[in-house]
Write the structure tokens for this entry.
Amino acid sequence: MSSGRIQIAALLFILLSVAVPISSAGANIDAVRYIIDLDISQNNTAVGRVEIIFNATDAKGLTFLLDNNLSVQTLRLGRESLIFQRFGDTVDVEFKRPVHGTNNLVVEYTGFLDESVDSHSWANLDSDGGFAVYEANWYPNIPGDRATAEIHIKTQPGWTTISNGVLIESNPEKGRFSWFVDTPEIGFSFASGRYREQQDYEKHIPVSCYLQSVQPNCAETLRKSVSFFSRRFGDYSYPKMALVEVGGGLKGGHGDNSLVIMSSDILSSPKFTEFLAHEAAHSWFGGMITANDSKWLTEGFATYAGVMYLENLDSSLARDALGTKRKEYLKVKSTGRDKAILSAKGEYDDVFHATVYSKGALVLHMLRSVVGEETFSQILRDYVEGYRGGSASVADFQALSENVSGMELEWFFDQWLRSTVVPDYYFETAETEFDGSVYTVQAVVGESSTADFKMPVDIIFVTDKGNTSKRVWIDSGAAEVEFQSTSRPVYLEIDREGWILESRRSNNRRVLRYPLSFFGLRLLISNLARSLQPGF
Ligand SMILES: [Zn+2]
């Protein structure tokens, strides 16, 4: 497999967040449970029957999403047929009279499971298997509304189907599988095909990989990521975790509650571990907590969770991953197409990925630097505990970060989420003096972006015997920093650890002149001058 292919896959891995509610028609509708029956036993054609159980308060209609490759055959409320209007994936249903209490909407539909976004397949069905992620709208769903589900899928004999939640019925001979999801979720995905199962356990929770190719470390890596995230973010809420390998043009991965779907090329790529961790983290960021207003809360967080998992294995892996994300973002920025994270919406393209995923992860890395290690960990745990089972907005996360840290952080979120400005720090001056026993280094650190950029910046002072570090706050101007040492100064460096997303790092180091050399040079010059001037 070419590395180019892997890079493209790495750049554009498609993942999920919440569907954005598209209509107010369902505002007084609350979906309670989906009973999904999907028959994909006939090649290429899906036949579905879905019962949406919902509570209504004086509802005159509702809106659901269904992929436009799937046509509605019948639509009934109880026993009464209803009329509807379709606009692409959006189906507006009109009730004959205002509806109250608990009701059942039954939708029968048929068509192709075939949906692509930015050349990545989100739903596919062929003779080898089939899959659909919930954003492909493979079943009628009321967007943005959490509900439980029964998912019954009928396939060709010999296929196994894996979905969210817990396995209730398994009949491979008849190709019949049922999965129940008893936590209210924003959406449901599935994959079917011929698989070998690799199983492990995280405490009592089964963790399985359903594979077509060879990936001996899959279940172990999946278990370790669930274990790590449980420690760092809070308990895992689901009855199992599964990863399913798929072909069919996914070219990446997809994670939602308790289910990861991953394409074969990723399973065999060097990016496998980070990909897997990212997708597994979506059970927390995307599953347990959905995002109200920005995919940064799901994709940026899952991307940084992937980096945290790598860091737990080997800090150099995390450093490399962060470096790759910085390059990816700056490359898009250099074309002038970058957007502020909170302005990036819509299509999954290279700009969206570089902005929301990669810069999004770097923003969390910087927040960690600003508030400190322990506070950052506490913020993530409090966030998951506070919003588990619900949804959060960026303002919620900011307020929580401010509460936990005791810091006012509006400037941080404004700079990094609502602006495209990236700072560039450099040494305006750096002078060294030596009094015969102690070296004193005084430097002025400037920032050359036009905005009044504020960040804490670590300056490291390296001598021939070791180094020391000081943190200075640079806020709309330059900052002075002073070091003293009895060892000989070698150089100063800005942000050696690479916390800050800077536009340029080539100017971060300043070699310090040795005062002895300077004095020696002055002595040499004065001797030379004396010898050239006979008057003296
Ligand atoms: Zn993702």
Notes: The first strand starts at residue 29 and ends at 39.
